[in-house]
TrEMBL record:
Species of provenance: Trichoderma arundinaceum
All residue ranges annotated as the GHMP kinase N-terminal domain in the record: 335-421
Name assigned to this protein: mevalonate kinase
The GHMP kinase C-terminal domain, residue ranges: 508-574
Main enzyme class: transferase
Alphabetic keyword roster: ATP-binding, Cytoplasm, Kinase, Lipid biosynthesis, Lipid metabolism, Magnesium, Metal-binding, Nucleotide-binding, Steroid biosynthesis, Steroid metabolism, Sterol biosynthesis, Sterol metabolism, Transferase
Amino acid sequence: MRLRIRVSIRRCWPAVQHDKEAAFSHSICTVVRVEEPVFWPGPPDFHNLTAKLSQGGNGTCTCTTRVLSTKTLNHPPTSWPKSLELLPAVDSLSPLFCENCSAQLRTDGEAQAQHWLALTASLCQTLDRRRLLPLPLAPVPTTRYHFEIHHHLHPTPPDDSFKATKEAQMIEFADTPNGSSNGVVPPVNGNGMHHRTLSQRRASAPMAPAFMVSAPGKVIVFGEHSVVYGKAAIAAAIALRSYLHVTTLSKSRRTVSLRFPDIDLTHSWDIDNLPWAIFQQPDKKKSYYSLVTELDPDLLAALQPHIDEVSPERSEEIRKVHRSSVTAFLYLFLSLGSPRFPGCLYTLRSTIPISAGLGSSASISVCLAAALLVQLRTLSGPHPDQPSEEARVQIERINRWAFVSEMCIHGNPSGVDNTVATQGKAVVFQRTDYSKPPSVRPLWDFPELPLLLVDTKQAKSTAHEVAKVGKLNKTHPKLVGTILDAMHNITDAAAELIQDNTFDAKEEESLRKLGELMTINHGLLNSLGVSHPRLERVRELVDHEGIGWTKLTGAGGGGCSITLLKPNASAEKLSKLESQFEAEGYQKFGTTLGGDGVGVLWPAVLKNGTEEDEEGGMEIDVEKFLNAQGTEGVEQLVGVHGDGGEREGWKFWRVESE
Ligand SMILES: Nc1ncnc2c1ncn2[C@@H]1O[C@H](COP(=O)(O)OP(=O)(O)O)[C@@H](O)[C@H]1O
Ligand SMILES: C[C@@](O)(CCOP(=O)(O)O)CC(=O)O
């Protein structure tokens, strides 16, 4: 079957349409390429497009698209802007950033030409900006867009009304988050004028397809707490993950809503009542690539009334949890968004136990940051052929904002949790200077360690434990400094050991050396006062059986422990230990280390072994997502891994090993 795809580019001067022929089989993904002269800052709006069956079909095909990659080619386009007056009005676009160099373009209206020049200069990269004057002496680069088109065939409806509107629906766009028109843009006729007859008008559609993002939890294998003081830590992603579903509402619905059932939180705000003015002040405004290393007290104060209105009838304990999540969301939403942001519903579910030291807050922070950046179209990819370097830039962008969210949730984070939740795998992390990005060294061959993960079910607060160590450090700076240095040396030794060619995760001697480092690390954490009797009890039980080495993981004060099991640990002893854990109210987790970091499912359609798979997949709507039962239900519905490995649909920014 062949489909004709018509791609029309909005907010691009001059307005352009492309007709593309592409062969499709029933309900698959395909890639279409469009080349477009770059006359405009930022990617054009290709958000939704519909494709028309050009032959042999008796149905329509609704497609959603995503820009897979953009590549700048240095050959001139076929048309040129003739004079500066012809440049389009730019005041409807805010903020303006160059996609290539991330430079913020001027928005002061002083001279619109400046935008164009700055953009062109940055795209030409090697060209001296001054040589671009006067226009159009410089070669204007062309951007090549790759689209991924998900299309779903719908049978032709029996009634004729469909035929009447079919043509009008042929080119249909969703609005961009920063856009000023409503969700449906009519076709452009030969004069560049928009027109659509009354009979062809339709109710507003949602402005973008629903999509999902997901990020893993983590275990810190070495270096928690000391990492807050600039020492190195080793952390690895785990298979437990958070999943965030984003629905964009139609233009008339000006609310932003959170549904976070794990913490029993539901709340909506009127977007137009949020304190945009202060977040948009030139001295406060941040861009999607900013490195924010501290929260702005004025912005926090402006958010306070909107945080205070959440869950007024709940207990103080619950409100505290709600406040953390809401502060993180609102801070990100107002920092990254704009008053023209569309109404949205964010629904979050996580399989990571909360406040157990497995990085639940970092995982949701990464999801929130990634979702907002995806909505703003500031991320390229992910796609399987994305160059590592490009993937790295996207990961860095998400990570920077996830760190801001982490600051909202627990005050003084080191950034290790959000880094591993964004990047996945296992990393050696160190942040010596908080005004700069951290050093992150991936451990590509992180071994498959035989780990037992035990949740004490003793809730703790990271903020509280971190503050406790801070206080101890203030009182005994020299002594605590020595302990933190020793922890750093342990991490160094462990990284060296793991990367040594002779290290074998199945061999006793290798594991013994690593296990001893874990024991020492735990002892030092205990000396800082962040263990807990229930954590000590796990150690006691494991030590009694003599089958492994145990340390707390995460902030401590409760939460989880990890035990590195000896290779010869007998099944009998293990099962005895597990029964004892169960009897004493502990929960054992089976998890693998070193999985993928942040992933995107765009649109929210997955194959789930249901009838709908025949039609291209099953759309994950909010209802299905909320109705999924427990961890198993969530994983079955949207998990990044199905029974047969990685699920088709989820995509990850992957930084490969050099
Ligand atoms: N599934 C979730 N839904 C909503 N908020 C969450 C979720 N998981 C974590 N959080 C937020 O993160 C906080 C827990 O952070 P923290 O104490 O650092 O624990 P952890 O060690 O699990 O990261 C919670 O109080 C809540 O604000
Ligand atoms: C104690 C600390 O090192 C790790 C905290 O991990 P968690 O929040 O318990 O998952 C704090 C940090 O690194 O920000």
